[in-house]
Amino acid sequence: MHGYAFAGWRYLCLFLVALSALVSAGCVFPQDPRGTLEGVQNATMRVGIVDNDPWTRMEDGRASGIEVELLKDFARELGADTTFVPGTTPELLEAAKEAEVDVLVGGFTSTSPGVSEGKEAGVTGTYLTTRFVVGVPPDTAAFDDPSGRKIAVERIDTTAAMLKEEGAVPVPVEDLSAAEMPIAAYEWQLKAWGFEPTGVELPEEEHVMAVPLGENGWLVELERFLHAHREEARELLREETS
After folding, report:
1. d(CA 37, CA 34)
2. Which terminus of the chain is more exposed, N or C, with fewer CB under 10 A?
3. Contacts of 92 (CB under 8 A, 6+ apart)
């Protein structure tokens, strides 16, 4: 009996040691091989920025837009300054590989080429979900099928591509609010401009940001901030597009 008791005690001890190791491993905060989070705190956050209004803009060397304002708030929380490095997505992904930028923004979504795959950069979870709706001017009949219809857009971009996939003909206009044809816009824009929503809704867009690949502690800290400031992001979007 004593032998069985000893063996049982031994197995219990081994189990407790293994359990303790697993728990300890699970509590380790994600690490940054390059020490990005520590390097940014109380120093400077370098932001790679791709021009994509209203999310990001570079005008006369000055950065603005929804994501710019969010990251300025993030930097203040970390006691850091911000500098903005303009470029194309491929250029900034390369800059991230070379540790020349800490964050990449440009109105990226979960389907943005080069970023969404997560092969060249670490991608945050969705911090804001948006959707465009097709609306018609007052006293105009609504419809459920956009095939063959001309629909006004602000520019030829992702929204225009989505409309084309639905069989519509996107037409860029200078002022959506004054268009005399159906438009693709956010619901609050349709309401403010007096347009009636139709049954045509474009696919949701899930907005994300990116960081250098492998800097997981930094990625977690940015995700924490974005999750806590989702309402701020939505309000900034309303302000920018009203």
Report:
1. 9
2. N
3. 48, 49, 50, 85, 101, 104, 106
Residue type for 217, please? G
* CB-based burial label for 140 (10 Å; 0-12, 13-18, 19+): middle
Q: How many residues does the chain have?
A: 242
Sign of CA dihedral 163, 164, 169, 170: positive
| DSSP, res 202 | P
| Separation of alpha carbons 229 and 90, rounded Å | 28
Amino acid symbol at 160: A
Cα dihedral: 109, 114, 120, 121 (round 10): -20
3-state secondary structure 13-76: HHHHHHHHHHHHHHCCCCCCCCCHHHHHCCCEEEEEECCECCCEEEECCEEECHHHHHHHHHHH
pTM: 0.84
Cα(233)–Cα(230) distance, integer angstroms: 5
Kindly provide the residue ranges of all beta strands, DSSP E only, lying in the chain, ordered along the sequence: 44-49, 57-59, 62-64, 81-86, 103-105, 121-123, 128-130, 133-136, 150-153, 169-172, 183-185, 196-201, 205-207, 210-212
User: How many Å apart are CA 40 and CA 51, to the nearest integer?
Assistant: 23
Q: What is the pLDDT of residues 153-199, one digit of tens each?
A: 999 989 999 999 999 999 999 999 999 999 999 999 999 999 999 99
